[in-house]
């Protein structure tokens, strides 16, 4: 089966600091993969390389079996917009926009007309337990609400792959569990592939499989905790 996303022997340095030293990982279509590992081990860098945000110094990144690391920036940017969704640790909502405009953003950037984009965006508010908050700005939302809005924004364009970098890192454990339930539930409903960076075992337990990044290498493959 062709992998949804794959890194082959990927190397990346920030100046003289090596962040990835030959990382190899394969994510199957519809799989939820947790990327674990100590602070500074290269987890975010691996996610950024898989998502075509960073271009590796060596090795290859493939999406649906096709190399993306050698594409021009404009094509990688279009790929991110059209086929990927993103959720980061601190939601990173646009403060000037309402919650529903934030959710609609990927659709608007993809050329969907405003009225249709907002209608599709609103559909997510009930689903993610956000009904009534459509017109709020990010400063008027709790951390958990803002992160659910960010999750809706990551999923609204029905991406093939959702990249989530510490999506619960700024939340208390109960709120974090609610966000993970919604993230995993929505991904499973649509068969969305998920690459989930986390240093928390209880978050990784939501995944189908976990890999550990250590010193810029993917060093171990184990079943996620709590799964047979
Ligand atoms: N923008 C940057 N400039 C310079 N060095 C960086 C930059 N980003 C990351 N690094 C370095 O690259 C290495 C890998 O960082 P990365 O952020 O990928 O680790 P991480 O496993 O995601 O860490 P954390 O769990 O703390 O977020 C570290 O040594 C880090 O200091």
UniProtKB/TrEMBL annotation:
It holds the Pfam family ABC_tran. InterPro entries: AAA+_ATPase, ABC_transporter-like_ATP-bd, ABC_transporter-like_CS, ABC_transpr_LolD-like, MacB-like_ATP-bd, P-loop_NTPase. It comes from the Bacteria. One of its GO terms (molecular function) is ATP hydrolysis activity. Keywords: ATP-binding, Nucleotide-binding, Transport. GO terms for cellular component: plasma membrane. PROSITE patterns: ABC_TRANSPORTER_1, ABC_TRANSPORTER_2. Residues 5-228 form the ABC transporter domain. This is Putative ABC transport system ATP-binding protein. It comes from Petropleomorpha daqingensis.
């Amino acid at each position: 089966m062709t992998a949804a996303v794959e890194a082959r022997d990927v190397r990346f340095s920030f100046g003289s600091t090596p962040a990835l030293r030959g990382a190899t990982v394969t994510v199957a279509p519809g799989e939820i993969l947790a990327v674990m590992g100590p602070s500074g081990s290269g987890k975010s860098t691996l996610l950024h390389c898989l998502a075509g945000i960073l271009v590796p110094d060596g090795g290859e990144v493939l999406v649906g079996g096709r190399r993306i690391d050698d594409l021009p920036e404009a094509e990688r940017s279009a790929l991110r917009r059209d086929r990927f969704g993103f959720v980061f640790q601190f939601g990173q909502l646009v403060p000037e926009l309402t919650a529903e405009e934030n959710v609609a953003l990927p659709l608007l950037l993809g050329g969907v007309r405003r009225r249709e984009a907002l209608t599709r965006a609103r559909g997510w508010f009930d689903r993610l337990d956000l009904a009534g908050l459509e017109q709020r700005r990010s400063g008027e939302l709790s951390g958990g609400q803002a992160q659910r809005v960010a999750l809706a924004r990551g999923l609204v364009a029905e991406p093939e792959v959702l990249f989530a970098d510490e999506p619960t890192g700024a939340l208390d454990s109960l709120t974090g569990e609610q966000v993970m339930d919604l993230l995993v539930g929505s991904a499973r409903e649509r068969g969305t592939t998920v690459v989930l960076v986390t240093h928390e075992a209880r978050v990784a337990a939501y995944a189908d499989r976990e890999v550990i990044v250590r010193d810029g290498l993917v060093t171990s493959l184990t079943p996620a905790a709590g799964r047979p």
